[in-house]
Amino acid sequence: MPGFYRLMEHVIRAVRAEEWPRVRELRIAALEDPAAPVAFLETREQAVARPDSFWQKRTAGASHGRDSRQFVAEGPDGTWDGSVVVLVEEAGTRGFFGEEIPVAQAHLVGVFVRPEQRGSGLTHALFDAAVHWAWSLEEPRMARVRLYVHERNERAQGFYRKFGFVRTGESVPVSGDPAALELELALARP
């Protein structure tokens, strides 16, 4: 698998361990977005309060290995315009919401593209890289790629459906708002 992808002037690539300050900055920018309350399970205040060691460990873990990978869209001026994180979930383990994982699968989280880049194809390119990486893993071999989306995040749901994700019928209550749901969508291995 190539180490990066090109989209127009952007390069889609995995983060490097030493880039933790930029990972932190992009996450905080995502949490400042008006859509953040229905897009993320973390607040800006929580992210800002995390110590540097948290960001260093998180970035190092997502830069190599087979447990997770974070892809970023880097513009020609070096600006990071978007990101997606892939988490590997092995069969028989527990998922983020405490559910039992029935098959080896990848879980996409932390999807963000800066507002000025939305509609440019950048999200599609990030998803292409993330899904390609998930399918490239040999052990464990991923049966599907899944994600959760807030029931009121219609813009994101539209993109996910267009990309090929379908509702599985599974959902979980939103933390802090049990009347709202996070809907599971999945993409089966071709």
Write the layout of secondary structure elements.
Elements: E1 4-7, E2 10-14, H1 20-32, H2 36-39, H3 44-49, H4 52-61, E3 68-74, E4 80-89, E5 105-113, H5 122-136, E6 144-150, H6 154-163, E7 166-174, E8 177-188
Parallel strand pairs: 5-6
Antiparallel strand pairs: 1-2, 2-3, 3-4, 4-5, 6-8, 7-8
Task: Describe the protein.
The chain is of the alpha+beta class. Helices cover 31% and strands 33% of the residues. It contains six helices and eight strands. Helix 1 crosses helix 4. 29% of the residues are buried.
- SS-derived structural category: alpha+beta
Q: How would a textbook summarize the main sheet?
A: 8 strands, mixed
Shape: globular
Integer-rounded radius of gyration = 16 Å
Counting DSSP E segments of at least 2 residues, the number of strands comes to: 8
What amount of the residues lies in strands? 25-35%
Question: Spans with pLDDT under 50 lasting ≥5 residues?
Answer: none
What string gives the helices and strands in order?
A: EEHHHHEEEHEHEE
Primary descriptors:
6 helices; alpha+beta; 190 residues; single chain; 8 strands; 33% strand; eight-stranded mixed β-sheet
Question: Quick summary of this structure?
Answer:
This protein is an alpha+beta fold.
